Amino acid sequence: MSIALVILAAGKGTRMDSDLPKVLHKIGGAPLLHHAMLSASALEPERTIVVTGHGADLVEAAARDFDPDAITVRQKEQLGTGHAVKQAQDAIDGFDGDLIMLYGDTPFITTETLEAMIAARATHDVVVLGFEAADPARYGRLIMDGSSLSQIVEYKDASDAERAVTFCNSGVICANAATFMNLVSAIGNDNAAGEYYVTDIVGIAKERGLKATAVTCDEAETLGINSRAELAGAEATFQSNRRRALIDDGVMMQAPDTVYLSFDTIIGRDAEIEPNVIFAPGVTVESGARIRAFSHLEGAHVSRGATVGPFARLRPGAELAEDVHIGNFVEIKNATIDEGAKVNHLTYIGDAEVGARSNIGAGTITCNYDGVMKHKTTIGRDTFIGSNTMLVAPITVGNEAMTATATTVTKDVPDGAMAIARTEQTNKAGFARKLFSMLRAKKAKMAKG
Ligand code: UD1
Ligand code: CA
Predict the structure, then answer these.
(1) What is the architecture, at CATH level 2, of domain 228-419?
(2) Hey, what CATH class is 3-222 in?
(3) What is the pLDDT of residue 1?
(4) Which residue among 102, 369, 378, 410 is buried most deeply as judged by most CB within 10 Å?
(5) pLDDT at 449
(6) Ranges in the chain, pLDDT < 50
(7) Residue 216 C-alpha to ligand 1 middle, in angstroms?
């Protein structure tokens, strides 16, 4: 069965109290919208249609950032969820599979749950995702008749008896696309809110002799984000779920609560993550690597056997080969560090290649930026870069080469050569003692008067 998604993301999110559209607030480094798109992407949807309104330009850009083929349609006025789905009419035209409608602000629906809904479609025309609510509050109530769903009643329109129902609407609905749109076109706005409720399609389906049912999921999955507090709570839930999943997959963490993960963090079995490590998006750590305390990683790949930190920063494009050592207060950006190379202390390596087994001394800097453009540094294999070397890029240091401590390298260094560029040292006999006594006398005089 081919699938099309319609994701509703036009709402304002007033309670977020933010200039940013609600669906662009992030959990695990990715916008809520991406989370909604991600869980559904495993179904390999043929079309993904995102309905935008508030902050449409930004939301559309984010939708295409996740999926360049995403179709976006605008809902000019937010007249309700039914009206929102209607905006997808042209974009869904000619599609003859199933349509799954979900909300852009509901990030935790799992692929398994969506698959269960698709499976239920075999015997029902309309499938709604429901949950047993601990506190049903203002959710729409699912009115069941045995295993068939006869109606969804919105809180505002519900009788006391209906409000007593705790089986609630998550918002996700699945039906054949043509059927769905046909039902939606029959929705009116004669209700307590004066809105077009998409939930009315269930009652309309029943009148037409179609069969509806509900699939149940965990309440945690249907958690929607409406406020900053809910966003923070959802982030905490996301983090503990991801940590737990990694630990279950064999990752070692001494203090999991202090490790922050992104939606796409990949960490291999037997890798060790020390306390207080932050994984921004785009990080892969292979099996058996070790990320030591207080390191920050983003857009980086750490191979088997490599060690990073403590207090290291890997920025986008940091590519560490096997058994590389990156030590304290080292920053690596857009650079490949080959097998067994060591960059152990107080160093910046940016826009560079460092060859296998080379050693980069403390305080080395690749001077990659001239104020206008970035330039590349290439260092060969088995090379020794002395402490406090300034590598003024573009520059190449060959294989089995050396730079003397405190050298400013402005010319390429051939294979096997040593570069030295610093003023020669002179020792002035007795000068230090003389200077000390002059300075002490001066200090004593000042103290007196
Ligand atoms: C909706 C359901 C309710 C369900 C609840 C679950 C309806 C009528 N009610 O209520 O049964 O229990 O979700 O959270 O559907 N949106 C638009 N355009 C609009 C209105 C909404 O794009 O004109 C989007 C919002 O951005 C949001 C989603 O649709 O992502 C849900 O809208 P919201 O107003 O939050 O619906 P609820 O009142 O929570
Ligand atoms: Ca809502």
Answers:
(1) 3 Solenoid (2.160)
(2) alpha beta
(3) 80
(4) 102
(5) 82
(6) none
(7) 19
